[in-house]
Every structure is written in C-alpha cells, then in structure tokens.
Amino acid sequence: MRAVVLLLLVASACAEVYDRCELARILKANGMDGYWGISLANWMCLAEWESHYNTDAIHHDSDGSTDYGIFQINSRWWCNDGHSVTSNACGISCSELLNPNLSVAIECAKRVVRDPNGISAWVAWRTHCQGQDLSSYVAGCGV
C-alpha cells in the first residue's frame, strides 16, 4: 500500500499544467509553428481542448483505448500502454507522453499529423478549432 501511495505522489509531482504562453513558446521552440502546414494557434487550440495544457491528462475511450498527455495521443494507434492492442506508430510507451518535458509528446504529435488524417485525427480539433479564428490562443505571448 505504501508503494502505491508513493507512486501516486511521485506521479502527481511530475505533472505539469502549462500556462498558455509558456506552452506556446515551448511548441514554437520545438518547431511546431508551421509544422506540416499547421499554425502554432492550431496546436494551442488542440492542446487546450484535449488536455487544458495538462501533461498528466488521461482519458479512457469507449473502444478500450486510452488517450495520453497534453495532446491526448491514443494508445490504439500511436503508443504502447502495455495492455491493449496497438500499432505503436510513434514507437514509444504511452507513459512517456505524460512527461512534463514535452519532447516525446511533440515528436509523436508530429508523427500523427504526417498521417493522411493530419490534424483532423483529433476530434477536439475538428469540433473546436477547425475553421475558427484561433488568434486568441497565441495573443500576447510574443510568438
């Protein structure tokens, strides 16, 4: 029981909920602005609606798969969660997507958008961001 409590405390201590502008700067510094023709504002909108900028976000889907991290990357297609069938196209453990250091999540998100569905692979982007004025997601951030 102590090990479980300690593990939960360590996991909670590692979580990061980014400030909007801080995340915008990190994504820009990691080449997300214009990556595969996708603006920084689109990435920011996606991250807001998928995780509210929370690296520790996890969502269990009705099909038995799970979405992980700031971009809510799905275990069925992109990462290995160790218990469900996966294509693991990013070649990573899903737990790596929960790291406050966003390098793995960013590289995997880049892999997702290179797929034929592009950024449309994310339902939240299609529902909340597509065709919208997204300038407010980067306004005042100096990016």
Produce a short descriptive summary.
With 143 residues, the chain is mainly alpha-helical. The protein has helices at 2-14, 20-29, 40-51, 103-114, 123-128; strands spanning 58-60, 66-68, 73-74.
Structural account:
It is a single chain. The radius of gyration is 15 Å and the shape is globular. The chain has 5 helices and 3 strands. By secondary structure, the protein is mostly helical. The model is unreliable at 1-12 (pLDDT under 50). 37% of the residues lie in helices and 6% in strands. Helix 2 (20-29) packs across helix 3. The longest helix is centred in the first third of the chain and has 13 residues, at 2-14. It has a 3-stranded antiparallel sheet with strand order 1-2-3.
Strand order of the largest sheet: 1-2-3
Number of contiguous helices: 5
Biggest beta sheet attributes: 3 strands, antiparallel
E-strand count? 3
- Order of SSEs: HHHEEEHH
Radius of gyration: 15 Å
Distance linking N and C termini: 46 Å
Assembly state (oligomeric): single chain
Portion of residues in helices? 25-40%
Class by alpha and beta content: mainly alpha
Shape: globular
Question: Regions with pLDDT < 50 over 5+ consecutive residues?
Answer: 1-12
Strand content: 5-15%
Mean pLDDT: 92
Strand and helix layout:
Elements: H1 2-14, H2 20-29, H3 40-51, E1 58-60, E2 66-68, E3 73-74, H4 103-114, H5 123-128
Antiparallel strand pairs: 1-2, 2-3
Helix pairs in contact: 2-3
What features would you highlight for this structure?
143 residues, globular, disordered N terminus, mainly alpha, 3 strands
